[in-house]
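Throughout this chapter, every protein is written as a compact record of paired, labelled lines. An example of such a record is reproduced below:
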Amino acid sequence: MRNSYLFTSESVSEGHPDKVSDQISDAIVDLFLSKDAEARVACETLTTTDRVVLAGEIRCRGVYDAENGWADGALEEIEETVRDTVRRIGYEQDGFHWETLTFENHLHGQSAHIAQGVDAGEEKDEGAGDQGIMFGYACDETPDLMPATLDYSHKILERLAEDRHSGKAPFLEPDSKSQVSLRYVDGKPVEATALVVSTQHAPGYFFHNGEGDEAKYNELRDYVVGVFKDVLPGGFVTDQTVIHVNPTGRFEIGGPDGDAGLTGRKIIVDTYGGASPHGGGAFSGKDPTKVDRSAAYVTRYLAKNIVAAGLAKRCTIQLSYAIGVAEPLSVYVDLHGTGADGVDEAKIEAVLPNLVRLTPKGIREHLSLNKPIYAKTAAYGHFGRTADGDLFPWEKTNLVDKLKAAL
């Protein structure tokens, strides 16, 4: 490993147009899972100027079936869920407003050919909802066992959102992005070399090329710099740190009015900020029979427990699946040369399937995934976080003792 290097990750806020789409899609997943724990959902969302469009496939007892179509009141409840999500994020603007937006619903029944591969039978275990490769990662850079660059990028935007919702920072609007560049020495982050925030703002809070209100812009900039210093460890932000706040000069038109949003376009933000491979599949809008989601969660769970157990400082795990087939086709572990004495990848690969059954059903049961918990995952990352003060099930380290005993 190089002695010194720079690494960068970015995050986007709950008001970013792609994240608005992710949150709507996951709110629909939660809606159906609250009605039927075995619901099948693949919901894609498009957001643009004062418009939200849903498309995809569903199967949900009591809500939709192929013979009778939608149950009474179901379409109205879907639309209410969409509008409530946009209102919670904070969009009450010309160009995108929860109350006035045009809503289109193009959800339909799940393909029978997909269902027959996934459904369990007398001689068949429940199969994976799609083929694919999934990665999980953990490292010892932060208490959350996440890459520091991404962890701080998320926390910066979470602070902005918290202060916007509380009224502490009334000049902030929902759409924003952050970027954190850190210098690493001997594999550990030691300082911030560059920090960037672009945030949608209230009218007038800009100053560029002599235009705008310099005092208002300085108020916004000073606030953001204060957030940088609060979120990052002491001493990371120095006089040499390059700081950019709204480098385009003005950011009043934002959210879906400024740029169209689509579900699943921020998968690196959702996972590890580029510090680990990504299998390619998005998470949001999918029920947990889709291994794009559930297997990515279990690989994070396993990798985090390995690092938490002191068996390695960094760990990457890959699983692969075929549609309709229950057992994974491969299990791969990489400790990046950081494994503890006597611990190697082959031993871990042999042990993991004995600790958690890595079939779609086994994963869902072990992590209790058939619950309406997904809207909370759809902004500020799926990993390294709590929801309402409690860890997501894939963030718990309850396998540490079993891993130590097995190895």
